[in-house]
Amino acid sequence: MSSLFTTILPEGTVTAPAFFVSTICAILTGCLIAFVFSKVNRCSRSFAITLCLMPAIVELIIMLVNGNIGAGVAVAGAFGLVRFRSAAGSGEEITAVFLAMAAGLACGMGYVLIAVLFVLIMAVLDIILNAAAGLGVLTDRTLKITVPESLHFEGEFDSILNTYTDSSELLQVRTAEMGSVYKLSYRIRMKAGASVQKMMDSIRERNGNLEVSCQALTGLKAEEL
Question: Could you tell me the domains of the chain?
């Protein structure tokens, strides 16, 4: 059993069979990651293609810099520059990228079986966690309300929030537009089956039809509803 988890690149020597085996395994793991991610999360076509190709790219880089410290430092700097040309993604996207890179690293070092088994385990776990995501999970939201300067906002929206939410907490009050409006930020938890649209319509009737937004908290970034 232990022999199955040894590298196919003994002493770091890259041979033609080892290169093709590592590359094929990297592509297969990338396609598996992209397939699972696209099934359980909303995913653009370009991001899915990126997940397919990333393990193979990382695998080749690791093969080329194997044992070369100078080349490894240069590659690390190049990866750092990529960060400044990409927008921050959601937690699921960042996890998928790291998984693709880990698979590429394992394949590049010759541990192809470890890469395949690890990706399979993570894929199954991702499916299970996403299937169970709605069981007993309470989703909090951020509600932002803009009110005119003339409106006495303290307690003005309590009756609406009590109708549509299980809990609400005023987190922040600030002025905007040269003090002509107030911006209120609430942390709320919607009641089961409550309509976000009806709640926002009721708020608009009291704040003079100024801006109202409701955002679902999803870890690293909030997705505006």
Answer: 2-131 (no CATH), 140-224 (3.30.70.260)
Q: How far apart are CA 144 and CA 124, in angstroms?
A: 38
Helix ranges (DSSP H) in 132-214: 158-164, 196-206
Element (H, E) at 187: strand 181-190
Sheet holding 181-190: strands in order across?
A: 165-176, 181-190, 140-148, 212-218, 221-224
pLDDT band per the 50, 70, 90 thresholds, residue 211: very high
Read off the pLDDT band of 173 (50, 70, 90). Answer: very high
- Residues in CB range of 77: below 8 A, 6 or more apart: none
CA atoms of 31 and 53, how far apart (whole Å):
8
DSSP state of 65: T
Assess whether pLDDT exceeds 60 at residue 84.
Answer: no
d(CA 61, CA 143): 46
The secondary structure of residue 207, as a DSSP letter, is T
Provide the whole-model pTM. Answer: 0.60
What mean pLDDT is predicted for residues 84-91?
Answer: 56
DSSP 5: G
Residue with tokens 């520059």: 81
Tokens standing for residue 4: 């199955």
